[in-house]
Each structure stands twice: as structure tokens, then as C-alpha cells.
């Protein structure tokens, strides 16, 4: 038939062939190997031409046409039948099941003629053959399938009414004397069939769960395994022994950003989970602290990394504990408790808003060395020596600055002496001094952006290790005695109430001078009440007293 044209006429079939050609890798292994070996798509037919209508089909000469629909009621197949039926050299092959009452069922019996779509009759002189390519099963295959499933209900939904009733009767007769209870239905179209199923399922208990006979009302907890509609309840440790299911352990590891100290980390975790087991490991890069929580969760803190690793074996309980651990870690640096634990006494004097009569407290020489410069944004800056010393050197400061900025700018470079970090964004550039954290740039927008990043880097480097107390709010001016300064260990307190005449001020006086006047003896207590009377002038001997910060 290589010289005989073959046509396949079907709009739906043509669309389906496109899918077969496109999804060749979803076919079986034999077709995939053939495609990989030859490169030819087996659904790109060489001798079969696809059409959507009779255009192109020759009127004379041999040809083969595959047309639908198969019942010959209408469409291309009916048109072609009426055209070819009068000629005896033509032939018709019925390849599938023909429904009663259709032209395909009628023409199998080779009538002399058949009615035409346009009226009248068409003589039949062509040859008619019936070769079944149907995928429908017969009684033997149906009964074998039902035997394997042992289904309690069988519903016959496709076929002629008489054939379905005969099949139903044969199935009921077959299982009538057996222990297999079966109900077979052969409903007509739009008939309703109601099936009743029991909600309870029986499961066999095996392994260690079966060591104790349960009593009425007892519970059994385990893994329910379903296979071939049978249920087995076993302990998870017995899965591999009594079933074909092998347990799998999932190891979880999560990295959480963290830039503060291990001491603070341990404090917060122990506040939540109690005393924790600690292990230490040393390597060439630094120290690793390992905290073990509930013998299930491991928290690893690396001295040379800016994150924490949390590791655990995944299960319902461990996952909940791990979620709690991660929540604690993420809130450490913003926790008020962390600020309280890491704060220290401020090293500067307090200035107050008021007139020229307001005086500052004397400063001790020791405190002058603790003064910290403050930026306009209120950020307490550290000196060059402190930053470099605590961070481990200018090289480390430069490396951390560069790491923060690499995701923000297209070009980040560190100078050879590690004192400058240069960034570039388009035609604009900026430089950051690693010692003073100062930003230089001719572009104000770029300078503002880099300054914002530097501020975040500084907070990360200083983080919670920087022990400084924020500046106190200025105290409102008091009416009353002028030229008097009263100091308190925690700061200056007091104020004037419009309805009160007395002022209560808490003060601490620390004097090691045994020659103080008798007036100062009344201040030996840590707290004193000073009325609105004139306060005594400070004694010259009090100059040696140390002023509280």
C-alpha cells in the first residue's frame, strides 16, 4: 500500500495527534528508545495524511480513508459511504461495536439499499466486512476481574439492554452458591442506584502493639498501613518487620542570622527551656558552642560566622520545639531584656535646658576617658581604636562592610590598607572610612544611602556588645533655690507641683573626709528630705568627694 494514498479524516483525531507528537517523552520505554535512536517521531506518520474534510480525497483511483463517526449516522463517514456505496469495487470495514438502530448495525447485514441523508435511497453494491478492534471485554474477562476485586457491588453501565441483563443473570448465577456476597445492577439511563457502605473498617494489630490484649474502650496508637483494601496497625518501630514500608528519618538544618554574643544567646534559651547542655569544639576558624535542648535540638554558635545553625530530627514534637527555639533567637537582639543585660553606666554628664543659672555637675577625671561621641541621629559612636580592637582589626571591619554592601551596589572594593571601602552605583561613587565610619561622596543621594547601610553595619558590629546607656531626657527647670546642685546616684530627680510646697529629692553622698562639718552629718543616710528652705552651701571639704555619675 505504499503507493496508495491513505487519509485520516477527523477534526478531533487531528487535535489528538498533536498531543501525541508533543508529549513523546511520556510514552513507554520502547517508543522513547526508538525516538532517541532514530530521531523520528513515531506519530509523525509518513504514509498517512491527516484531513478535516473530504477536500483532497481523489474521486477516482485507489485510496484508503479512515473516517468518523463509526456509527455512520452523519458526518464525513456518512458522506463518503453514500458516494462509494453504489460501486462494487469499493469496500467498507466496520472496526468497532455498532449500536442497535444505527446505519452501521444495519449495513453489516448487507441490505440492498439504505436511506440517504438528502432523501431517497442509495443502492449498496460495495463489500461490507466487520473486523472488531473494540477494547470492550467479554463475559470471561469481566468475571475474572470481579473475582480479583471481590467488590460487593457491580454496576453495568455500558452496552445493549438485553446483553447487560444476560451478563447480570450469569454473574448472579456464578456466585449464588459461594460465600461471596455480590449485588449486580443493570440500570436504564437516568435510573438511580443507591449503594450502602459500612463506615467501620477492621484493622489487624501486629508487632509490639499486639503484646497486650485491649479491653473495651482502650485506644491503640500506631501507623495504619493499607494494602489491597486490608488495614494493619503497627508500631512505627515495627514497620520494616511487618510491612513493606521502610521508615525514613529527615534531618533538618536551618541557618538563622545572629550577630551577638554566645552568652546572650545561652541566657535567652535557658530562660525558655531551662538549663542546657553545653559542648565546645575548636577549629582553625574559631570556637563552636553547641547547646542541646531536650536532647533533640542542637543550636550551634560559631565565633566566626554571622548566623546560628539549628539542627534536629524532624517529627511532630521536635518541629514544634525547633519553631520555639528559632522564635527566641530571632527576638534576642530586639528584646528589652537584652538591652538591660548589656547596658552600662554612661560616661558623660547630663546637661539640662534652662537659664544660665543652671550648672553642670563636676566630672571626675576617670569618666572623661569613657566619653563617646554621639551622632546627629543619636547613635553612640565608638572610637577608631575601639572598633578596630573589638572587631579584630581594620581588615575584618572592611570585610564586614563590603559583605553588607555587595548586595546593594554594583561595585564594592576594599583598599589595600583596609582603611577605605569604595562603592560605585552608576556614575556615582562613595568611600567609607573603616576607622571612623565616615562616608564621603559628591552625590548626596548616594551618600545618604551608604550612610544608612553603615549605620546598620555599625549596629551589627557593635550589636549588643556595646555597653552604653542612652542619654537621659532633659529635666524640666525647677523653681526654688538657685545656685544649688543636688546629685542622685541614678540621676537628678525632682520637680515642682503647683499645689505642693515641699520638694522630695533622693541623694547619695559618699565622703571619705573625716573632717567634714557637722552640717554634713545629716547627709550620711542614703536618702534625705530637703524642704523648700534655703539649702546649705557646700562645704569646702566636700571638694574631695566623688561626684556620682
Explain this structure.
The chain has 549 residues and is an alpha/beta fold. Helix content is 26%, strand content 17%. It has 14 helices and 21 strands. The strands form 7 sheets. A 5-stranded antiparallel sheet has the order 13-17-16-15-14, covered by helices on one side. Strands 18-19-20-21 form a 4-stranded antiparallel sheet, covered by helices on one side. Helix 13 packs across helix 14 (444-462). The longest helix is centred in the C-terminal third of the chain and has 19 residues, at 444-462. The protein is elongated and about 110 Å long. The termini are far apart. The model is unreliable at 352-393 and 463-549 (pLDDT under 50).
Write the layout of secondary structure elements.
Blueprint: E1 6-9, H1 11-22, H2 29-38, E2 48-51, E3 64-67, H3 75-84, E4 91-94, H4 103-108, E5 113-115, E6 121-123, E7 127-130, H5 139-149, E8 153-155, H6 161-174, E9 183-185, E10 203-205, E11 223-227, E12 230-234, H7 239-242, E13 251-257, H8 262-273, E14 277-282, E15 287-293, E16 297-302, E17 307-313, H9 316-330, H10 336-342, H11 365-368, H12 384-391, H13 394-405, E18 411-414, E19 420-425, E20 428-433, E21 439-440, H14 444-462
Parallel strand pairs: 1-2, 1-3, 4-7, 8-9, 10-12
Antiparallel strand pairs: 5-6, 11-12, 13-17, 14-15, 15-16, 16-17, 18-19, 19-20, 20-21
Helix pairs in contact: 13-14
Which runs of at least 5 residues are low in confidence (pLDDT < 50)? 352-393, 463-549
Helix percent reads 25-40%
Characterize the overall form. elongated
What is the CA-atom radius of gyration, in angstroms?
A: 47 Å
**Strand residue content:** 15-25%
Q: Mind summarizing the main beta sheet?
A: 5 strands, antiparallel
Rounded to the nearest angstrom, the distance between the terminal CA atoms is 110 Å
Amino acid at each position: 500500500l505504499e503507493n496508495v494514498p491513505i487519509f485520516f479524516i477527523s477534526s478531533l483525531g487531528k487535535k489528538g495527534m498533536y498531543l501525541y507528537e508533543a508529549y513523546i517523552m511520556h510514552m513507554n520505554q520502547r517508543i522513547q528508545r526508538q525516538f532517541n535512536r532514530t530521531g523520528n517521531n513515531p506519530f509523525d506518520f509518513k504514509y498517512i495524511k491527516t484531513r478535516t474534510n473530504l477536500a483532497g480525497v481523489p474521486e477516482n483511483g485507489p485510496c484508503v480513508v479512515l473516517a468518523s463517526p463509526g456509527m455512520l449516522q452523519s458526518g464525513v463517514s456518512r458522506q463518503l459511504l453514500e458516494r462509494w456505496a453504489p460501486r462494487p469495487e469499493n469496500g467498507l470495514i466496520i472496526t468497532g461495536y455498532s449500536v442497535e438502530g444505527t446505519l452501521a448495525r444495519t449495513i453489516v447485514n448487507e441490505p440492498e439499499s439504505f436511506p440517504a441523508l438528502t432523501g431517497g435511497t442509495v443502492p449498496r453494491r460495495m463489500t461490507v466486512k466487520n473486523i472488531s478492534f473494540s477494547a470492550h471485554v467479554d463475559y470471561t474477562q469481566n468475571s475474572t476481574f470481579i473475582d480479583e476485586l471481590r467488590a460487593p457491588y457491580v454496576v453495568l453501565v455500558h452496552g445493549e439492554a438485553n446483553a447487560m441483563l444476560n451478563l447480570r443473570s450469569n454473574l448472579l448465577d456464578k456466585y449464588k452458591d459461594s460465600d461471596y456476597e455480590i449485588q449486580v445492577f443493570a440500570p436504564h439511563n437516568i435510573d438511580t442506584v443507591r449503594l450502602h457502605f459500612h463506615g467501620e473498617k477492621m484493622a489487624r494489630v501486629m508487632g509490639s502493639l499486639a503484646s497486650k490484649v485491649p479491653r473495651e474502650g482502650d485506644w491503640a496508637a500506631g501507623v495504619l498501613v493499607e494494602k489491597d483494601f486490608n488495614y494493619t496497625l503497627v508500631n512505627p518501630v515495627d514497620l520494616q518487620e511487618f510491612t513493606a514500608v521502610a521508615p525514613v528519618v529527615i534531618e533538618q538544618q536551618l541557618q538563622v542570622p545572629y550577630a551577638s554574643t554566645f552568652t546572650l544567646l545561652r541566657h535567652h534559651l535557658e530562660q525558655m527551656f531551662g538549663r542546657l547542655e553545653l559542648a565546645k569544639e575548636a577549629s582553625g576558624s574559631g570556637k563552636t558552642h553547641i547547646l542541646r535542648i531536650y536532647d533533640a535540638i542542637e543550636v550551634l554558635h560559631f565565633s566566626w560566622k554571622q548566623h546560628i545553625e539549628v539542627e534536629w530530627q524532624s517529627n511532630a514534637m521536635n518541629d514544634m520545639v525547633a519553631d520555639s527555639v528559632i522564635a527566641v533567637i530571632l527576638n534576642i537582639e530586639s528584646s528589652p531584656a537584652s538591652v538591660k543585660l548589656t547596658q552600662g553606666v554612661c560616661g558623660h554628664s547630663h546637661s539640662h535646658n534652662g537659664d544660665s543659672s543652671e550648672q553642670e555637675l563636676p566630672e571626675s577625671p576617670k569618666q572623661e576617658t569613657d566619653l563617646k561621641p554621639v551622632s546627629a541621629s543619636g547613635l553612640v559612636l565608638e572610637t577608631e581604636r575601639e572598633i578596630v580592637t573589638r572587631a579584630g582589626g581594620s581588615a575584618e571591619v572592611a570585610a564586614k562592610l563590603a559583605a553588607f554592601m555587595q548586595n546593594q551596589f554594583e561595585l564594592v572594593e576594599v583598599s589595600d590598607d583596609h582603611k577605605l571601602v569604595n562603592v560605585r552605583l552608576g556614575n556615582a561613587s562613595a568611600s567609607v572610612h573603616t576607622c571612623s565610619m565616615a562616608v564621603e561622596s559628591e552625590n548626596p543621594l548616594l551618600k545618604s544611602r551608604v550612610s544608612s547601610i553603615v549605620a546598620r553595619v555599625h549596629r551589627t558590629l557593635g550589636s549588643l556588645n556595646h555597653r552604653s546607656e542612652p542619654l537621659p531626657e532633659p529635666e524640666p527647670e525647677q523653681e526654688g533655690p538657685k545656685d544649688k546642685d543636688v546629685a542622685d546616684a541614678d540621676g537628678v530627680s525632682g520637680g515642682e507641683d503647683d499645689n505642693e510646697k515641699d520638694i522630695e529629692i533622693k541623694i547619695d553622698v559618699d565622703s571619705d573626709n573625716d573632717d567634714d562639718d557637722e552640717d554634713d552629718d545629716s547627709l550620711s543616710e542614703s536618702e534625705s528630705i530637703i524642704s523648700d528652705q534655703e539649702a546649705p552651701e557646700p562645704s569646702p571639704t566636700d571638694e574631695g568627694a566623688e561626684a556620682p555619675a
